[in-house]
Here is the input.
Amino acid sequence: MNYYDELIGQIDELIENGEDREAERLIRNELSMPYVPRDIEEKLNGLLHDLIQKNSLPASLSMEQIEEYLFQDDLHQLMAVSQLADRNLRNCIDLCDRYLKSDGNPNAKAYLLLSLIFQEIDADLVLKRGEEQIPFNPSELIPPENSEGYRICHEILSERFLKEPSMLKLAEELLYKEALLALPHLIDGKEGKDLALKIASYLEKAFE
Here is the structure.
């Protein structure tokens, strides 16, 4: 199995699991690369077209629609978070808090949490992850890619896959997803080293 087989398989799995936004992000990232084989480019464009058709939405959802979508299925949650993130979240703190305390989609929660961090929202919130209740204040956090552990992990992976740019790109995608889903926890130095070994081992076994 080569890099493109792995990528298409990953995208298909994301779509099957209702993680359309993440699938679209991977597709757009790959299409932005300087070189993509023609058959792969056609495949990716076809998948992207299907996703756009499937998830076509009004240009803007009302707050009532956003609130309704947040407590529906995974796809609707991701749609709602996508539009909620473009708003001033200072005006939506109660809704954000209620959603983060729900049994919502982990990816949608992570994207909302990231938006709260970017907007430097100063509020005491709680994230429910399984049975765990995690208190946090977005204004006290930094984007995951700015953490020490993320930087260390990226340096190790860059050195490990120095001569394999396609593998490095896939490793970077896995690193970002792991860091995003770890929020509000930020990866420290030791965790960064351990995560680099985990990602490298996973990729090397997958491509064996």
About this structure: Residues 144-206 form one domain. The radius of gyration is 18 Å. The longest helix spans residues 165-182. The longest strand covers residues 125-129.
